[in-house]
Amino acid sequence: MPTGITSLLGLGLKYCIQMPRPTNKLSKTTDRLKNDIRRIYHFKYNPPENAGEITYIPELYLSADWQAPVCPDPQVEKALNSFVSSVANERGRYQQLKPSNLTPSHWKLIEKYKSNDQFIIIEADKNLGGCILLQDTYISRGISKHLSNRDVYQPLSKHEATVRHKKLRNKVESFTNK
């Protein structure tokens, strides 16, 4: 068992981690706001040309990475920049580091095992809290205790499994091609 994991699991699986900083990014939010306002301005003063009969609204079908051009009206850009700077100033007044409710060693453990596929953390039986298992052990127990139970599951022959797999694949393809 990894060193220090018992103290981390002792907190419980429903323990709420308090982050030292907010996780939202102000720059992403303000960039999106600027792009939205510029897009609205652009299509208000530059409506799409009517080339025959259009049965859809072309403005709704822009690619996600399309950036609206800067507004030709300097008042709009000035108001946007003023708003963004005042929000940043106000946010800075209230954004202070909060102490995390995890120790530095807990944070290191979380970072180390967050993307580790060797271990899996699960809820123990009889409300005993969390426990850590090797993933291979977890999979072999799942197969031996659950999937091999013939009262619940019946084994398929290779031919029957192949036929069912093809039917399912055809259903998925017909659904996704609609």
Report on the structure:
- The protein has 178 residues and is mostly helical.
- The chain has 6 helices and 2 strands; from the N terminus they run ααααββαα.
- The protein has a two-stranded antiparallel sheet with strand order 1-2.
- β1 and β2 form a beta hairpin.
- The longest helix has 21 residues.
- The model has no long low-confidence stretch (mean pLDDT 85).
Q: Which characteristics define this entry?
A:
two-stranded antiparallel sheet; mainly alpha; 50% helix; single chain; 6% strand; 6 helices; 178 residues
Describe the strand arrangement of the main beta sheet, using strand numbers. Answer: 1-2
How many helices in DSSP terms?
Answer: 6
Quaternary structure: single chain
The major sheet is characterized as:
2 strands, antiparallel
Number-wise, the strands total 2
H-E string: HHHHEEHH
- Residue stretches low in confidence (pLDDT < 50, at least 5 long) are none
Overall 3D form:
flat
Secondary-structure-based class equals: mainly alpha
What layout of secondary structure does this protein have?
Layout: H1 5-9, H2 26-45, H3 74-94, H4 104-114, E1 119-123, E2 130-134, H5 135-147, H6 158-176
Antiparallel strand pairs: 1-2
What's a quick, concise take on this entry?
This protein is mainly alpha-helical and about 180 residues long. The chain has helices at about 5-10, 25-45, 75-95, 105-115, 135-145, 160-175, and strands at about 120-125, 130-135.
